[in-house]
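Moderator note: this is an archived Q&A kept for reference. The question asked for a predicted structure of one protein chain; the sequence and the answer are reproduced below.
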Amino acid sequence: MTDGDEQPPGRTTDGDEPRSTDSTTPGPVPVADVDAADAEPPSADRADAAPRPAVAAPAGEGEPAPVPSENADNAPDPGDPAADASPAPRPAGTIEADACPPSRPAGAIEADTGLPSHPVASPVADTSPSPYPVADMRQSPHPVAVATPYAVPLAQPGQAETRAVRQRRRWPLWTVLGLALGLVAGAVPGVLLRQSAPDAAGRSAAKDDPGTAAQRRLGERMLALLDRQAAALVGADRAGFLAIAEPAARPALGRRYAALRALRVTTWRPAADGVPEAVEGRPGEWRQAVTVGYCFVVPDCEPSTVELGARWRLAGTEPRLTALEPSGADPAGVRPWQANDLAVTVGKRVVVATTPAQRRKLPGLLAQAETAARAADRYAIGGRPPDRYLVYYAGKGEWQRWYGGGRPKWTAGYAVGVGGGRHDVVLNAQIVTPAGLDDLLRHELTHAASLPDRGYADRADWWLVEGLAEYAGADGQPVHRYDGLSEVRNLLRGGWSGRLDAVAPADDASDDRVGGAYGVGYLAVRHLVDRYGEQRMLDFYRAVVHQGRTPEQAADEVFGDPWSMLHDDCVGYVRAVVG
């Protein structure tokens, strides 16, 4: 990469500068039209408490569920008989839902250092415009669905893995792992470290303070209502999903329902984090912290988790939901399905989602992502790739608010841990180019396949984490065709210490410095592969990144050679390649 003042031909470093992505124009993809259908208008008796169900869809569930009208502002209230009417026909290959809510202010998050970070966004009600880390699947790709809401530079919380843009055939991929080490909002190169909840379905309502007996009883009633709503969501019952809410809250919740159904939600398990608390100065209003375990497409997966803030108002003695807000306690930040209408397409290994405005690019994106997934599966540590890769394609506004936003202008994509052994991938539509998309997808999906659920804790391992992703991105091409060699040469001439554990770039590093760091990681990993083979290199990666061994310990155990010698050999190889 280059410094901000120097822009060599064929590269883009300005994250605000749009880049063409027409190569992802749609190809033939099976499509299906799905009409909105409210099962029944909400009734008062739906608020009755019920035993907590294990909410998961049957293994055979496949097709997208009904979704509401595209126009969120004109969406009928579910209590209105007109709410049962089907929406107008939609473009072929899509299932539409409510329109996107207003843009929300950006938070801050990034990843590309090897250290996870966690953005912290303020809790925001769904109705307000603010934002907040294998089985053989051989069925044909599924239709595109549209629904409603829902790099890392170093040392910044709430971040995810990111990459800088390199045009032509590939780009220096700014991937960063963010580690929340008591940092406050900022950006970190790498992949987000996400501490997943112990058990999203079974956490006790009494967390720290059991509260009064009255609070506990109220919390139980609230949780019973959320369980009933969860069963309606997984069962494709939109009216039942909205029935526990006050009328004013239903438009936003309807958009949330549509987005989750388009993503093929199969599991939704709410659990209370403590007892509800009264809202000061607002008699009869309560707030409740909730953790939800969820799965998309695959039933009975190990759930990812999301933190939510449920707000309630007592109607007599019965709680009525007034909002489900993103939680400032959630390290990953606001999910796309919490913030926007979504267009979704599902393939054998990948789910790709974007906003309705970008839906025409979904077929091409899915085809390229499916190819990248087959490459990334090879680098799954322990031989167990993710059940599905989830890729979000973000426009300019979405890039600023999904998962906290606030990434460096050179970031083309990142991976953020969301629990359950998954890392969601986000691509920046403003700067992703057709020439670099394949490499970018291989790099990011390799992070999703190879990283531990909770990220990695040692910045000294950055070269190994990013080197593996760069190696996967290069896809077996000859070393002399790697696009980052000039940046590596500049790094060697610019005072790098020659230590792999010190090559990670700072969050304010120049594009050239970042590109050189990625190149060093790639060449070091490439040398280990050439010398010992891919499997032993992956065993070394697992020992260091997953098991927390030092490189000295791992080298002795895996390679049978001292790390001091191998380190110097790797650095010597880097110098020999770039001259």
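Archived answer notes: Confidence is low (pLDDT under 50) at residues 1-54, 58-143, 148-207.
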